[in-house]
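Two entries, shown back to back:
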Amino acid sequence: MALNLSQKQNVVAEVAEVAAKAHSLIAAEYAGTTVEQMTAMRKKARETGVYLKVVKNTLAARAVEGTDFAVAKDAMVGPLLYAFSTEEPGAAGRLIKEFAKGNDKLQPKLVVVEGQQYGPAHVEVLASLPTLEQALGMLARVLAEPAAMFARAVKAVADKQGGGDAAPAEEAAAEA
């Protein structure tokens, strides 16, 4: 169904708003993907903070003007599905990678991160980025490690000198 001018402007405005805030973009060919597969992918995209849209390439090119994703305008050719990561950079990569496993018709064509365009192989790199929770967990471990090392060193010194738990017991026996 053809869109009239106001509908096209609304689509461009919607995609431009998402592109202005997104961390990464993956464009993938989707021809041959079933309706059930697309529905499942859209559901998973909503759950993981990925904006998924099938839009004409000319409208997508207009929408990404003035954003980090403008470098991909020339590569927007053919029937493409656009996946913008809105919450964390690797979310779109994980989504496309997951659904490409079960569907050989879904083929990533380009990846854009921070104004740099990469080939389809970069989807693996993007998908391997840790989630926010994983990154916070790693940070917490790194921050806690010096304190844990200090505690182990103090305990080792106390054990070596024969102090630690035995000293209070000896004092209690001497008082009785």
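entry 2 starts here
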Amino acid sequence: MSEFKFCPVCAASLVMRADVGEAGKLRLACPEGHWTHWDNPLPVLAALVEVDGKMLLARNAAWGEGRFALITGFMERDETPEQGIAREIKEETNLDAQQVTLIGVYEFMRKNELIIAYHVKASGEIRLSEELLEYRLVAPPDLRPWPAGTGYAVADWMKARGLAVQFVEFAGSSTPLVSVAQH
């Protein structure tokens, strides 16, 4: 369940404790009451990056062939979400964010994340970090969102522009999974 085994305050072995104030929700905690692991969702930043009218999708080095998605990353201390996504785009693609617009906020329960998604108009020469293997530039009508996490952000962005949305099994796939009416 967690990487925590000992209380960081007193070094006691952690136990599962029912939180009375929250209808008995179980949480990993110090038996002496010094510390509780809340396991709250982690905020993740995501960008649907637009370069010269096309949308940039990238393949992470850890992913299989044909799997492309948005640029994502974590905020750092003392930066706003907008500054964070601009930094992530620069670090991962070498592009400069010119205009950053919120698309929306999306749950990704499978990874206990809360995704803050942006549409970012960017410019510059694309040079990928070692974290990414390849990229595609896709015309907006040709985007095929995936039915999870950042895929819902892509679908919402497309719908706001009057574009037809067709969900696929995974980013870069051409196999339809669900219709837009099901989202």
